Structure formats: C-alpha cells, structure tokens
Amino acid sequence: MEAQAVATTPRGKRTRDAIVDAAAQLMYFDGVAGTSVDKVLAKSGAGKSQMYHYFKNKEQLVAAVIDRYLEQILGNQPAIFELRSWTDFETWTEQILDIHRRAGGPIACPLGNLAGEVGDNPKLAPLVDQAYRKWESYLEQGLTALRDKGELAPGADPARLAQAAMTSVQGGLLLAHIRHDITPLEDALRIALTHLHSFRP
C-alpha cells in the first residue's frame, strides 16, 4: 500500500487528526462500507483537497483508522507497557475491565469490529492483524521478562502464550458486548491468567 502523506505543520497535523478521528468514529458505528468520504468530510470539517492530500484512497484512510484504534486501545491499558511481574498482569486485566464497567459498557473492540468486516480483504486484513500483533507484542515482552527472571518456565513460549491471551480477550470482548454483560470478559481474562500462571515454575 502506498505510503500516506505526513503532516509537516501543526495546522496540518490538526487537520489530518480531525479527518482520522472523524473516520474512526464513523467506522466504529457504521462500518467501513457505511462510511463515505463525504460523511468524513462533513464530520471533520476538512475539505476534499485536504482529505486527498493525506489519503490517496479510502484504504489509506482505513489504515490510519486502524492505527488510531490501536493507539486508543493501548492508551486504556497503560500497564501493558510495563509488564514486569505477575501483579502487573493482574493490573493489566483490571484496566481492561475498568473500561467496560463504565456507563455504556461493555463496548465493542474497534479492531474486532473491523476484523469482522475486512477479514477477507487482502489489503486491509493484514493491517488489522499487524495491529493485533503489536498489541500482543507487549504481552510477549512481559512474559519474556518473567521467563528471564525465572518466574516463567524456561520452555514456555511467550509469543504463543501472548496469542492465547489475546484470543481470550477478544472472545470475552465480543460476547460481553453482544450480551451487554461483563461476565464473559471477566471469565475470559480469568481463564487467560490461569493459563499463563500454569507455566510458572
């Protein structure tokens, strides 16, 4: 995919951010197919020339939205950046639950929404997967740190464990949102932690 144009001035950054934020909100509720360029322009207040300066096509805009979703997701679980103990992993799960205990929760995972819509798109599906892998990478780093300290079995595979944890998180998020009930997410996170703890020496 062709590289997106980079904003080089504060004003340009504000304009680009406004476009991406508007597209992210619209795509969250209406999906990619239901979000037209005209809707994005109307919501962002940007002009068409500005839009096409930063994004040559809709796929580039979706790519930027994926990045924004990941930024927001990780921003809501800051403990994921400093996973150095088993207690840190507990904190990470609590931060996820805190988001979904708020009014209006449990909410849908924006990456999960996109995955359901573009999962068969050969250009966009790899970008969603890349975002998930970035999310997983912080879990893998934390598990590797535990293994290096002797708090995770030497034969454990941090990447595989991180993938398993992500699978639990995503399944829990999906059912919690559909059922308007946080217990599937609580149970999924508990199962993920129990699985990780089973690899303690």
Automatic annotation (TrEMBL):
Stretches assigned to the HTH tetR-type domain: 13-73
GO MF annotations, alphabetized: DNA binding
Keywords: DNA-binding, Transcription, Transcription regulation
DNA-binding region ranges: 36-55
Name of the protein: TetR/AcrR family transcriptional regulator
Natural source organism: Amycolatopsis balhimycina DSM 5908
